[in-house]
Amino acid sequence: MTATIPRSFRLLEELEKGEKGQGSEACSLGLADSNDINMTMWNGTMLGPIRSIHENRIYSLTLEAGSDYPQKPPKVKFLTRINASCVDDQGNVISSQVPCLANWKPEYTMEHVLLDIRREVGSPANRKLPQPEEGTLF
Amino acid sequence: MSDSEHPEQLEILIKPSRGDKKTVCVSSKATVAELKDKLSELYDIPASNQRLIYSGRILKDDQSLEVYSIKSGHSLHLVKGGSKSGAQSTSMAVQEPQSRAQEGPGATHGVPTNIASGAGTGNVLSDLTGARYAGFANLPSASMFGPDGGMGPTPDIDQVLSMMERPGFSEAMQMLLSDPDTMSQMNPMLDSMPPAQAQQFREFLRTPEFRQLMSDPQALRQMFQQAQMLRNLFENSGESGGSFGGFPAPGPTEPNDSNANSSGSGQNPLLSFLGNSAGNSNNQFPDLSALLGSGLAGSGAAAAVQEDSRPPEERYEHQLAQLNELGFYDFDRNIRALRRSGGNVEGAIDALLDGAF
Fold first, then answer.
1. Beta carbons of B248 and B259 less than 8 angstroms apart
2. CB–CB of A53 and B94 under 8 A?
3. Å from A51 to nearest chain B CA?
4. What ipTM was predicted for this assembly?
5. When comparing pLDDT for B209 and B29, which is higher?
6. What confidence score (pLDDT) does residue B182 get?
7. Would you put residue B342 in left (φ > 0), alpha (ψ -120 to 50) or beta?
8. CB contact under 8 A, B74 and A20
C-alpha cells in the first residue's frame, strides 16, 4: 500500500539526524566512513542506562545496514566489551533478545535499535551483571 | 574534507547530558582536546572528565575536528565521564544493604534491589511508579496508574494480584518487608504505638511467615476473598464493618493480650488476623490491613486518599524549575514526565532522555 522509501533516502535521513544530534540524547549514530556511498557501515554509541551498572559508561557499537535495509534489520555488534544477555561473546547482538530486532518493521530506524538495546541492557536481568573493565574492546 | 589551506570556522552545537545547549565556534583544525578546554570553561567540567560523542563515535583528544568531518550546524554530545554526578545515584545503583544478605540465594536477582533504599520523594514505594522503571517487564503497566503516578481510588484486587504474580515481585516485596525501617515509614501507626508493642509488632512483621504471607499471591488472594466475605457479612448484618470497608484508616490500637498472638505462636497468622478483625476487638491487626492496602497500592493508596487537586504547574513548580535548569524547556513534556514519575525529578529526566515522550 505505502510506497517503500528507498534505502538511501532513509539512510540519509538517519545520517542527518545523527550528525545534528536530533535523536535521543542517550544514543548517537553516524557513518563509519563518510565517503562510503553505500552507507553500509555505521558507528553508534549508547550511554549506559542510568541506575544500572552501566551508568556513566559509553558503549561503542557498529551497525551494518545491508542492501536490504530497512526491509531487514541492521546487524549490530558491540565494540566495547559488555556482559549482557543480548550480546554474545563476540560482541554480536543477539537479534532474538532485542524486541525490535526480533520483530523488525521497516519503519524502525537504527536509533530504535540502539534505544532498544539500551533498554535491554538496563533490564532487570542485565542491569547488575558484573562487567568487564570499562573501555575494553571485543 | 575541508580546505586544508584555510581552516574553517565551525559553529558546533554542544548538547550536554545536563545543562544548556550551547553553540561554540572552533576552527576545524582544532583538536578535540582544545575543544574540551574551551568547554571546560562553559560547563564547569574538567576537560579530563569530558566525553564528546559525534555521529556514533567517541572523539579522541589528539584528533582534529576535521578528521571526524564535523560540519557547522552539527552537534556533539557532551557526557561527563569519570566522577559521578550525584552521590545518591551511586549508592542506589551499586550499594546493596547488608540486610539483604539474609535473603536466599538468587532472591534478589533481577529485582530492583534499591527499592527499599528510598527515593527523594519520601515514600519508599515511589520508585515503583517512577518512570525510571518504565518498560521493565516485572512492574505494573502504566495503565494501572492514574495521572500523577498515583493509582485510582482502589486498585482492583485481581489487578493487584496479577501484578504480584509476576516474577520478581514477591522477592521485592520480601525484601521490602524485611526492612524494619521501610515498615515504619509505610505505616506511621507504628510510631504512635508504645515502644514495646511497636517492637513486638515489628518483630512479627519480620518473621519469615509474615513475609511469606505478604508476598505470596496465593495467600493474599485467599485473604482478600475472606475479607470480602467478611465485609459482605458485616454489610448484611447492618454493622459498619469498621476496619474492613475497603481498608480504611486503622482503628484504635490498644494494648491487650492478643499481642501474644501476633508475636507468633507459630499458627497461621492469617487466621488470627482475620479472626481478630472479624471480632472487631481491640487489637493491633487492623494496622495490617492498612499496611496491606498501602503496601500493595504503592504510593497510590496514600495519594488517592488525599487527591491533590492543584494544577500540575503549581504542584510540580519546584520540579519544573529544576528541569528547566537542566535544559528541559518543553513544558508539556516535562509535566507528562513528572506525572509519570510521580513528581520524581530524576525519574522524569530519565524518561525525557530516553525520548519516551
1. no
2. yes
3. 5
4. 0.88
5. B29
6. 57
7. left
8. yes
**% pLDDT > 90, chain B:** 10
Instruction: Give B27's contacts (C-beta < 8 A, 6+ positions apart).
Output: B7, B8, B9, B10, B65
For B16-33, write each residue's pLDDT tens digit. 887 888 999 999 999 999
Helix (H, G, I), strand (E, B), or coil: what is residue B326? coil
Contacts for B315-323 with beta carbons within 8 Å, 24 or more apart?
A: B315/B148, B315/B343, B316/B343, B319/B343, B319/B345, B319/B348, B323/B348, B323/B349, B323/B352
Active site residue A100: yes
User: Which of A105, B342, B330, A14 is closest to B353 using CA atoms?
Assistant: B330
In chain A, what are the domain boundaries?
A: 7-122
Ordered structural domains, chain B, with CATH: 9-80 (3.10.20.90), 157-235 (no CATH), 312-354 (1.10.8.10)
User: How many Cβ atoms are within 10 Å of A6's Cβ, its own excluded?
Assistant: 10
Measured CA to CA, the distance from residue B89 to residue B55 in angstroms comes to: 28
- The pLDDT score that the predictor gives to residue B293 is 47
Would you call A123 and B137 a contact, using CB atoms and an 8 Å cutoff? Answer: yes
Provide the 8-state DSSP code for B132: G
Tell whether A134 is within 8 A of chain B (Cβ): no
Question: What is the torsional sign of CA B123, B126, B127, B131?
Answer: negative
Provide the residue count of chain B: 357
Its pTM surpasses 0.90: no
Name the residue among A19, A55, A125 with its Cβ closest to that of B93.
A55
3-class secondary structure, B71: coil
Q: Under DSSP, is residue A62 helix (H, G, I), strand (E, B) or coil?
A: strand
Cell numbers linked to A87 = 550480546
Confidence of residue B95 (pLDDT cuts 50, 70, 90): very low
Q: Homologous superfamily of A7-122 in CATH?
A: Ubiquitin Conjugating Enzyme (3.10.110.10)
Which residue type is seen at B319?
Answer: Q
By the 8 A CB rule, do B66 and B2 touch? yes
